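Section 3.1: Structural characterization of target chains.
Under the original work plan, the team committed to producing a structural model for every single-chain target entering the pipeline before any wet-lab resources were allocated. The record below documents one such target. The sequence was received from the expression subgroup and is listed exactly as submitted; it comprises 123 residues.
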Amino acid sequence: MEWAELQQHHQAEFDFGTFIDLYADEPDVLLAEAFAGRAYALKRQGHFHQAIDDYTREIGLNPNSAIGYLDRSLCYDELGDFASSRADYERAIELDPDVAELAKGRPTVWKRRPGTGDATCRA
């Protein structure tokens, strides 16, 4: 992603949003990629609720997106919704066991948060 390399997340959010608005009737796979791109930009800006919404739209259009589930898992984790984070992470691994390798630096190790009993994933 060129925007990611340049740290231009606001521009990426705008560009993907424009694509989604203009090409709403395009094939699902193109829209899924646009939602994923905008979700990534939103996540990088710390807009986790909005990113979850877009990852959910991506997954709705492409239910076999292991990366979509993995990235949404990260957002849930950031918001403290550890049950949803874990469910999405496990679904990503179920869809593509190799996603664990791709997840280096992402939620790859499950731990218990002290005093809560909640399981979460931490790199």
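The helical segments are 2-6, 9-22, 28-44, 48-61, 66-79, 82-95, 99-102.
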